[in-house]
Amino acid sequence: MGAGFRRYSTYRQATIAGAFTNTVFGFLRCYVLLAVVAGAGTATVGGYDAARLATFVWFGQGLLAVVLLWGWTELADRIRTGDVVADLLRPVDPVTRYLATDLGRAGHAAVTRLVPPVLTGPLFFPFYVPHRWTTVPLFVVSVVLATVLCFGCRYLVNATGYWLLDIRGPMILWALVSGVLGGLYFPLRFLPDALVVPLWVLTPLPSLFQTPLDIMVEIDSTPRQLWLVALQAAWVALVLVLCRVVQRRAERRLVVQGG
Amino acid sequence: MMTVIAAHGLRKEFTVRVKVGWLRRDRRTVAAVDGVDLAIERGEMVGYIGPNGAGKSTTLKMLTGVLTPTAGQISVCGFSPVRQRTRLARRIGVVFGQRSQLWWDLPLRESFDLLRHIYRVPPAEHAVRLRRCRSLLDLDEFLDTPVRQLSLGQRMRGELTAALLHGPEVLFLDEPTIGLDVVSKQAVRGFLAELGATGDVTLMLTTHDLADIEKLCRRLLVIDHGRVVHDGTIEALHARYGSRRRVVVELESPEAPPEVPGATLTVVSPLRFEYDLTGATAGELLVRLAGLPIRDVSIVEPDIEDVVARLYTGVPVTDAP
User: What residue stretches are annotated with the ABC transporter domain (chain B) (predicted)?
Assistant: First the structure.
């Protein structure tokens, strides 16, 4: 975990550039979504008022780099070049080792990438401050679970490289689906319940992004928040087991590229 | 003696798809390793050589548990490598000359520290081993440089250290001197020789640089087309492939060279001729040449590269001695 933190802290300029970009896009998304609420002519849309929506956007902009929906191809790159051999020669299971590194990376991102947008947003937009004391600890747990879950999903997408070598196809599909159905582009509750409920229960996607943000803006009651976190935990368990199974199968048919 | 590495009937097949016609592709099975038997004792230093594509690296990857064999049994340090890969990893060290096991973004010092945590090495033990590697491999000047900025020779010294910090019983080295300059090669060889001299570490080394083998390994395994074609000392290899010592004689003035029993004569020029020693000793030959106006005599030892080149280019030998 320390390695992940240390590795990502090497690239200071990239961190600053990333935080700046997230903040700029925060303004764009915030204005667009506030215009939606204003255009709807009602005080709330899908349970979000203007303050909740702005908070959703700014926390979302910060969370993007913590959860890291896209842009992780380390495993796939190492499969393609054959360097994955070094991972298999360590006395630790590759899934465990990559997860630990990813949590270190997420820790670094939580400090450097989550904080700037979250501090910038309230200066220019209305902001929703949680009313219940349980919300913040639940949010933290939910972010950790979302990070692990997202790692698992990314690992599975990368692991297709064991079979395909080039993962650009699965990666583009993942970026598209996770962004739209994870709740990055718009709050999923804008969609009809008949669509949202199955999406939430039958896929891990809303648990990646929408769940922690909804917890932060207290869209639901505490018991329902707890239920959503439990659902996240269940998805984490399932996806991590799947990662182990896929990794085992891959190792059995592994061909090391490049001799 | 204790057998540390044992393999019996080791085989690895790969499937290759070959294009046939416009759309059809045929699947063909190629055996990269085809029935290799090995038994390496504790403390041995074994050179594992063969032409490109002979199956050297594939064998090493199976012995370390990275690749699953198609058939055969393996035991390394008493473990079954594929099934017990992570447990075996604590007992072995591996260096692949063409790949890096270090962290690209981190300085060597931090990579080593991370390895201490990954392998759960007590700090005191780690410090002792690191100190030894630092002095023997001259690591100090680049210990704080990120791995991505190291030269190949520096990185390889780092890789060797990384493979040894957890005190492995067996060290697998796949072309550890590839692409290195003379000084770095000597540093690596010197280090490995010192390591081998302790007798605690078993070393299996693949290389194309036969000087590595001559300097380090008493025992030589030659693999070709996935099968072991020689297992024995370098001297045995010379004997088997008819390598001869050669005596080169240069004269002051032209003179007919005498025929000597047990030596084959080749006249290069009126002032220079050579004898291949087929039974006679160099001393016996020189006695017979005593009356000639000799300007210079040199004795040329058989070159292992010639022997191996003949072995590689010849018809595959199917019977191991």
Answer: 18-250
